[in-house]
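I would like you to sit down with the pair of lines that follows and say whether tokens and residues agree.
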Amino acid sequence: MRRTALRALIGGLLLALVPVVHADGTPRVQAFSSVSRDIVAVGETFKLEIEVLVAPMEGEILIEAEAGDGSVEVVRVEGVGIERRQFGETPVAVLTRRFVLRPLREGTLDVPTVKIEVAGVHITAPAHRVQAYEGAQAFYRAARSVLPVVAEGDGFIRIGSGFLVAEDVLVTAYHVVVGTERVRVQLPNGKRLTTRKVWAVDPVRDIAVLYVDADDVRRAGLTPLALAPPPEHDEAGAPAFTAGWPDGVQQTSVGLRYDDLHPVADETIWVSSNRVRPGDSGGPLLDRQGRVLGVVTSGRTALSGTDFLVEDVCLTTDPRKALGLQLRTARPYGLRETLAVHARAGAHGHARVLELVTTLTRPTGWRTGERDRQVQALQLVAAEAPRDPALQFLLGATLDQVGDAPRAFEAYRAAFTADAAYFPAAYALGYHYLRLGDFDAAEALFDRMTQGTPYVTLAALGLARIYAAELRYAEAERALQEVLRHDHRFAPALYLLGYCQLAQGRTAEAVALAVRLEGLDSSWAERLRLHLRQPIFQPVALATLPPVGPQRP
């Protein structure tokens, strides 16, 4: 068995802190860790970050990483550091380590176990797994056929992505082109194409099939992409890739696939953990063979900052129906005229809601006096499709954007009633129940979502909030450990963990967390310090959970 032992490379091999007399003679040791990537190519490196908090203590600190079965090797150790701070009369040590690791084979692999020993106290850092894959060269070749798309309308520009499925057929998202008059496409050879024609649109699945000039495509040497056969669509746990153009620069991502959603009969939404950003919409979700699984239509954009919990989700829909319509069309239609037919009053509900969503993204937003009329129109759309969870959820997210929380709540409830497996609606509904103080309803929804959905960490955070409010501190701690396994620097979770420890009489551990928070977010550190110094104070309210709407990439 390969072992990599690190004995605090500051001031010698062994680190000794100032001895402190403690009530039971033992230090309080906590370990937190997270991996930089949960899916990685065989041979590529990723990082395991470890933080160890000790308060108070005496003796030596030993940190060891054991490679287990050897499927993941330790390449090197970096970022070694220690901070010594004082909280009142209590000295606190914060130790950090980064292990650079590399998977040696494909599959679900255990990350090396990290063991910590402090003055006779032995603990193990939280365990992690990664998904390793290989053989994705075809994806990188296919990425060349994914092109940047710029849709231009009356006073606005919208950026997205598109991909070729034939020399004169470019697929993108309907919401990228809705309300536009022309679309510009940038080819790899630098030539720009402008099209005002469309083969077909499918607002239900958020798909638009544009006409492009075949001669220009051939001259650019582009190869149209193939669609993955339907049997490939149920590979939960397999890698999936995107290659969109956020900010006009091609950026690839790799994620894990989850179970598919089936919001209505014969419809499929493919779900993965790819990071999608503004500009990714309309691009393909690809398998490792470079075949199209679906069209990126929405997702949760990763956020930064100590108050945001990043949990990436990508939703993609099936372009086959729209492509079938295209094959039955002798010549393309005018883009502006086709979009106008679908967007006018009484047209399909998806087209109407997508039009309103894209209106909200324009710099001008809602015009004065228009909001109430638009909300009434949205309500009429919802009434026409009460059993369509995707449409009801989209409606709820739109209402949330305009600040109409009560009607958004009703739309989310309708979406969940239509399909309890539609996790975006389940999370949004749980979030609203939590805001309303209905902890039982919120707990039931969040508990469902911890069973293999992309929002398992967000759901764990919601459960921790509920447990703490109901004085169920041990349960809150367990939920928070799951949150911190995902992101060990997430300040609101560290604060709430410290409060739960303090409520259970584990003051030294709460002190260590207060010291740790000083280096992350001074506002959360001060909140925890307030409880430590003045226990009579009630806990300060946490920032609200981030609402999850269809943040259009």
Summary: Residues 360 and 401 are 8 Å apart (CA to CA). The two ends are 45 Å apart (CA to CA).
